[in-house]
Design a protein that fits this description.
This protein has helices spanning 36-49, 61-71, 86-94, 110-123, 138-144, 153-167, 183-194, 211-227, 242-255, 278-289, 339-367; strands at 9-12, 15-18, 24-28, 53-57, 78-81, 99-102, 127-132, 174-179, 202-203, 233-235, 264-267, 297-301, 316-320, 324-329, 332-338. By secondary structure, it is of the alpha/beta class. The protein has two domains: 9-255, TIM Barrel (Alpha-Beta Barrel); 264-367, Sulfite Reductase Hemoprotein, domain 1. It has an eight-stranded parallel sheet. A five-stranded mixed sheet has the order 11-12-13-14-15. The radius of gyration is 23 Å and the shape is elongated.
C-alpha cells in the first residue's frame, strides 16, 4: 500500500492541490496562446481526456492578455508559464491566470520578485517554483557541480534558494518542481527534496522525448516516486499531441492503483493466430473509451484463444476469428458477429453500457 507524503495544501482556481487531495494530472498547450480559438479548442480536448490543470506559454504581452478570453471559455484552472520577464507574470495575473510558473532566480532581482509576489497576493494566485537542470545558477553549479544521480545538490539548493526569495516576501502559496532530463537524477532529486520541505511537489521529466521514449522515461521516474508516496501533481512531457500526455498520466495512476478514470483497456499483443485487423480495432476502441467515465474493464483480443478465457475478468470484450468475431461479457460469449459488423455492434454495446453507467452515477448523486 502506498503511503503518501503529507504536504501543505494550496488552491489553483477552485482545485485543491497537496495535502489529502488527489494527485492531479496536468498538461501544457502547444498552440500560440494569442490564438484564442486554437488554444481553447486544445484545452477542451485536454479537459475531455481528464486534464485537471493546464499551462500555457506566455512569451509576450499579447499572450498574457489573451488569458482573460481563454479563461472565460474553459472549465479547468489555467497556469501562465513565465520566463525572465516579471512584467508578463503581473499582466497574466491581472488577466485571470489561476497560477503562474516562474524560476524566481531569472526574474532579475528582488525588486522584480517583490512585484510578482505583490500581484500574486493581490489576486490570490499560487506560484510554482520551477527549476530545471539547465537553468541552475552559475554559482551553484560552481559549488556543487552539474546534477547527477549521485549529486543532486545543485538542483535542491537552487529550488530552496528560490523558495526563500518568495518566503522573504511573506509568500507561502507555492509548489516546487526540480526537473531533469535524466531519469535517475529526477528520482534522486525529488527523493531528497521531499525530506527537506513540505511544499507540494510537481513531478516531471523534462525534455523526455516522443511517445515511446517520453512515456517510458516519465513512467519509470514518476512511477518510482509516486509508489514511494512522493508527488502531488505531474505532467508527462511528450513531443506529441498533449492529449497523449493526459492519457499516459491516468494510465500511470491506474497501474499504481492510485486513481482510476474511466474504463481500463486490455488487449493482446497479437500472434500468428490473429485473423482480423486488431491494431485498427484496438485503436478505435481506445479512442472511444477515452471519452467514457464508467469504470469498466474492456478487452480487445485477437482470437478466441485469448478471448473469454484470457480476458474473463473483462466486463465486455471482443475477439476476432476468421470472418467472424465474438463479443463476450464476464468470460461468457454474448454474441457472434460477422467480421464486417463487429466494430459497429461492439461500439454500440459500449455506448449502451456507458449510458447505463451515467444513469447509475446520476442516481447515486441524487441520493446523496
Amino acid at each position: 500500500m502506498i503511503v503518501r507524503r503529507k504536504t501543505r495544501q494550496i488552491k489553483i482556481g477552485g482545485v485543491a492541490l497537496g495535502g489529502d487531495s488527489p494527485i492531479l494530472v496536468q498538461s501544457m498547450t502547444n498552440t500560440d496562446t494569442q490564438d484564442v480559438a486554437a488554444t481553447v479548442g486544445q484545452i477542451e480536448r485536454l479537459t475531455a481526456a481528464g486534464c485537471e490543470i493546464v499551462r500555457v506559454a506566455v512569451p509576450d504581452t499579447p499572450a498574457a492578455e489573451a488569458i482573460r478570453e481563454i479563461q472565460d471559455k474553459i472549465a479547468i484552472p489555467l497556469i501562465a508559464d513565465i520566463h525572465f520577464d516579471s512584467r508578463l507574470a503581473v499582466v497574466a495575473m491581472e488577466h485571470g491566470a489561476d497560477g503562474i510558473r516562474i524560476n524566481p532566480g531569472n526574474l532579475g532581482g528582488e525588486a522584480k520578485i517583490a512585484r510578482v509576489v505583490a500581484a500574486a497576493k493581490l489576486h490570490k494566485v499560487p506560484i510554482r517554483v520551477g527549476v530545471n537542470s539547465g537553468s541552475i545558477e552559475k554559482d551553484l553549479l560552481k559549488s556543487y557541480g552539474y546534477p547527477t544521480p549521485d549529486n543532486t545538490d545543485a538542483l535542491i539548493e537552487s529550488a530552496l534558494r528560490n523558495v526563500r526569495l518568495l518566503e522573504k516576501q511573506g509568500f507561502y502559496e507555492m509548489k516546487i518542481s526540480i526537473k531533469s532530463a535524466d531519469v535517475l537524477t529526477t528520482v534522486q532529486g525529488y527523493r531528497k527534496l521531499s525530506t527537506v520541505t513540505d511544499y507540494p511537489l510537481h513531478l516531471g521529466v523534462t525534455e523526455a522525448g516522443g511517445l515511446i521514449a517520453g512515456t517510458v522515461k516519465s513512467s519509470v521516474a514518476l512511477g518510482i516516486l509516486l509508489s514511494e508516496g512522493i508527488g502531488d501533481t505531474f505532467r508527462i512531457s511528450l513531443t506529441r499531441d498533449p492529449v497523449e500526455e493526459v492519457r499516459v498520466g491516468f494510465e500511470l495512476l491506474r497501474s499504481l492503483k492510485i486513481r482510476e478514470r474511466g474504463p481500463e483497456l486490455i488487449s493482446c499483443p497479437t500472434c500468428g493466430r490473429t485473423r482480423i485487423d486488431l491494431f485498427g480495432l484496438a485503436e478505435e476502441v481506445e479512442r472511444f473509451v477515452q471519452t467514457m467515465k464508467s469504470p469498466l474493464k474492456v478487452a480487445v483480443m485477437g482470437c478466441p484463444v485469448n478471448g473469454p478465457g484470457e480476458a474473463k475478468q473483462a466486463d465486455i470484450g471482443v475477439a476476432g476469428g476468421k470472418g467472424v468475431g465474438i463479443i463476450f461479457k464476464k468470460g461468457e460469449i454474448w454474441k457472434k458477429v460477422k467480421e464486417e459488423e463487429l466494430m459497429e455492434v461492439f461500439m454500440t454495446e459500449l455506448k449502451k453500457m456507458e449510458e447505463e453507467g451515467q444513469k447509475e452515477r446520476n442516481s447515486a448523486k441524487r441520493s446523496e
